[in-house]
Amino acid sequence: MPQRESSQLLRKIPKVDELLMAAEIKELLDVHPPEVVREGIRNGLQRLRQAILGAEKTEDITEESFSLSNLLPLFKEEIAKQVNPNLRRAINATGVVIHTNLGRSPLSERALREIEEAAKGYSNLEYDLIKGARGSRYVHVEEILLRLSKAEGGLVVNNNAGAVLLALNTLAVGREVIVSRGELVEIGGAFRIPDVMAKSGGTLREVGTTNKVHLKDYEEAISDKTGLLLKVHTSNYRVVGFTSEISLEELVQLGEKHNLPVMNDLGSGCLIDLSSYGMEKEPTVQEAIKTGVGVVTFSGDKLLGGPQAGIILGKKDLIDMIKANPLNRALRIDKLTLAALESTLIAYLSEAEAIKEIPTLRMLTIPLDELQKRAKRLQQLLAKETDGAAIEAIKTTSQVGGGALPLHDLPTWAVAVKPTTASLEALEAALRNQAPPIIARITDDRICLDLRTILADEFTLIVHGMAQALRKIST
Ligand SMILES: *Cc1c(COP(=O)(O)O)cnc(C)c1O
Predict the structure, then answer these.
(1) Alpha-carbon distance 463 to 452, whole Å?
(2) Which of 159, 206, 240, 342 is the most exposed place for a label (fewest CB within 10 A)?
(3) 23 vs 17, 48, 72, CA distance in Å?
């Protein structure tokens, strides 16, 4: 619109101080601090200013645009943006159980209770209750980790990337670390073995080719510069076809022969053999420890199903060296994580208990007929409560995620939703913008809500969110 007209309109924008006198705004001031209300009004008015400057025709901006009834929702939105946490709960309907972008593992009820206990008051975090003196924060989980894994020593840090960095920095600084070319992994979010190696102060010594490595490749690379032999679990990919790799046992034997420590980055680190639940074999922590390996590292929030953490287990002398590294202090685990990790580990004292109690394991092992039952129930609720879509329960596949079992598809049941008029992309986006956001995937020309990762108490939220989203895209 012409500049003269737009500046005329801009002059009609109400003043913040005037607005603060209005009864509706006073109500907001009863709930929110004045700083927040003021900023909310300022930002709301800024949006109006932008609308005026962006309007093509004068008629797009009417008297109504300046009314309090029109502006109030804007102010409320701008207040909500300030006071509602940006990090919020989301519904994972993707079927990817360990979804790194959606926060990996939901915690068990027991872990939640223990986090609350540890958070709301003081604790014996670093206080020895028997001696009445300073203690160590690591003792809380060390004993149970050793019991479950049969390792001689252990410690926990902030995450597995930190665990790998700390272990390499302790065992290989200024020395060469021999790794197979086929194991130079990149994990989502820019964790790359060569880069972590460089930061640790170790020097990467690659051996073999992408698809094949032989024991003699390692052996020939060993020199007086060698500090460590490293094996990395190819968490999120597999090299298939004409391949050969060296087992951890063989590498441990080679290490013994040359008096060199051996480390295994397990990535996901599983304490239960999932192959007894119909899943593909993922190496367990106990199996790795049994080989006599010097150090293993793994994540707390992948297959273990606990909080974000990096767990380091192995031979006592090596673990003691790692504990003494000053970098350990920079990577230390916090008390809330410790509380959650300890209670997650307690569930593992019984395998049956762990499967029942830990959400990640429970989701991975739900029987197919149970998923089918839930899909039918959600389908019925959605069909009854929503309009504008064809809805059916279908059999499909889900993924483990989190860099575990990359080739393994789990059969599952989902509710498939196809909007009658709007596009799938519009519905997917509208679901994402619900409160809480519903994250779904598009497969076979439909929106799929996978029952494997939908928690028991989320049905009502999904039905409500779907009804809203369908209404929004059809107008
Ligand atoms: C996931 C993974 C990591 C990184 O673990 P975080 O807990 O995400 O820091 C490192 N190595 C391997 C092999 C992994 O799979």
Answers:
(1) 17
(2) 240
(3) 13, 21, 11
Q: 313 alpha carbon to ligand 1 midpoint, in Å?
A: 15
pLDDT band at 409 (very low <50, low <70, confident <90, very high): confident
Q: Is the distance from the beta carbon of residue 459 to the nearest atom of ligand 1 less than 6 Å?
A: no
Question: Atom of ligand 1 at shortest distance to CA of 232?
Answer: 13
Nearest CA to ligand 1 atom 7: 160
Ligand 1, atom 14, residue with closest C-alpha: 267
What is the whole-number distance in angstroms between the Cα of residue 188 and the centre of ligand 1? Answer: 9
Atom of ligand 1 nearest to the CA of 404: 15
8 A C-beta contact, residue 155 and residue 142: yes
Backbone dihedral region for residue 208 (phi beyond 0: left; psi -120 to 50: alpha; all else: beta): left
pLDDT at 403: 66
CATH 3.40.640.10 residue ranges of the chain are 107-357
Q: What is the pLDDT of residues 160-194, one digit of tens each?
A: 999 999 999 999 999 999 999 999 988 776 788 98
CATH of region 107-357: 3.40.640.10
- Any ligand 1 atom below 6 A from CB of 235: yes
For 91-100+364-474, CATH number out of 3.40.50.2000, 3.90.1150.180, 3.30.750.24, 3.40.50.620 equals: 3.90.1150.180
Does residue 160 line the site of ligand 1, with CB under 6 A? yes
Where in the chain do CATH 3.90.1150.180 domains reside? 91-100+364-474
Pairing outcome for strands 446-450 and 404-419: antiparallel
Rounded mean pLDDT of the chain?
A: 94
For the entire predicted model, the pTM comes to 0.92
Nearest CA to ligand 1 atom 6: 160
Probe target for ligand 1 pocket from 105, 299, 302, 311, with the most ligand atoms within 8 Å of CB: 299
pLDDT in tens, 109-130: 999 999 999 999 999 999 999 9
